[in-house]
Write a structure and sequence with these properties.
The protein is of the alpha+beta class. 35% of the residues lie in helices and 15% in strands.
């Protein structure tokens, strides 16, 4: 594509300066391939955990807290506060696509502000941070074209809005082979196994489960679940790591004394959130850990698990856990014949 001042080729320009290098030059606080978001005032925690993911494969960025995303042109425009024409002109000069020459070794000196964090994972980094970066790299690679028609139709049919799908970064794994190759080019196979995203045999686990649902915590992706669209089992597949709760940030945002619904499934929690309630999904009552009750201290907890025998047993178990921690709960019973919260809303 040729456009902008002096007929600059925009496709060439978008790849001319590495995204990590430009972010560094623009003054963003960087660690590896994460940066503190320039839109941090829109984050509830000021972007304490660096939510801006830098996709070095496609030379793009995306914030997993506020949703800001784009190319190096967008990054420059948003940080510098200039219009498109000025951004193209400035970046073209920096990249040497105009008479002014660009000397990265002078304008981007690693020694001036300490070494630039290595974009490759190292064995000295904290395991959890490494896993987060693996999940974020996986999601960034796939998020440019989030959902195919089949996946979107299914999710909308479950009552989820386009706004919810976008805000929660739900996407379709469209090219299994390319994504598998991308991860293995970026990370060590043993680290991918430890992160639970590839099998013991070394294959990306989300082969049939093409709808991917990221779990976000303070702007970082901490867990992943996949959903398949045929009638085969298991319908859901999550990382080969201990299960985490979905939408845990709602506890931080709620404040003490607020009502929090605990559901089993992610779609249940999302439907409740769409309807103005605060909800968390635990991915099955058997996954709830006794120590998690401490996270709900001071909240008005409502248990709304699946309306089946397993769900009723789960309610008994969770009620006991909360009671032992000195906290009572309320139980929300669903009408007869309604399986879960998602079914309840679809029946209205």
């Amino acid at each position: 594509m040729t456009n902008g001042p002096g007929k600059i080729d925009l496709d060439q320009l978008k790849q001319a300066i590495p995204i990590v290098e430009l972010a560094y030059k623009l003054g963003l606080e960087i660690r590896g391939r994460q940066a503190r978001c320039y839109n941090s005032q829109a984050h509830s925690n000021g972007d304490r955990n660096k939510s801006l993911g830098l996709d070095v494969t496609r030379n793009r960025y995306r914030c997993f807290a506020c949703g800001e995303a784009g190319s190096i042109i967008d990054l420059y425009m948003n940080i510098k506060g200039v219009d498109l024409s000025q951004a193209i002109k400035d970046l073209a000069e920096m990249a040497g696509l105009s008479p002014a020459s660009y000397k990265p070794s002078r304008s981007y000196d690693y020694r001036d502000a300490g070494p630039l964090p290595d974009v490759k994972p190292t064995t000295t980094e904290d395991d959890l941070d490494l896993y987060n970066r693996i999940y974020e790299s996986f999601c960034l690679y796939c998020l440019d074209e989030p959902l195919d028609d089949e996946s979107r139709s299914y999710l909308i049919g479950r009552g989820l809005s386009e706004d919810t799908l976008s805000k929660r970064f739900i996407f379709t794994l469209k090219d299994y082979q390319a994504t598998d190759k991308h991860l293995k080019a970026e990370f060590k196979l043993d680290d991918l196994r430890k992160a639970g995203i590839v099998s013991d045999e070394g294959n990306l686990i989300f082969y049939k489960h093409k709808i991917i649902i990221p779990f976000l915590r303070d702007g970082r992706i901490v867990f992943l679940q996949g959903r398949r669209l045929d009638n085969e089992e298991p319908k859901y597949l999550h990382l080969k790591r201990p299960v985490q709760m979905y939408n845990l940030d709602t506890l931080t945002d709620a404040g003490k004394g607020k009502r929090i619904y605990i559901c089993e499934g992610i779609f249940d929690a999302l439907i409740l959130e769409q309807s103005g309630y605060r909800a968390i999904a635990i991915l099955g009552a058997g996954n709830f850990k006794r120590e998690w009750t401490e996270l709900f201290k001071g909240q008005d907890v409502v248990l709304c698990l699946d309306n089946d025998e397993a769900g009723r047993r789960g309610i008994d178990t969770l009620t006991e856990m909360f009671n032992l921690s000195g906290q009572g709960v309320t139980i929300k019973e669903l009408p007869k014949g309604i399986k879960d919260i998602n079914d309840f809303y679809l029946s209205l």
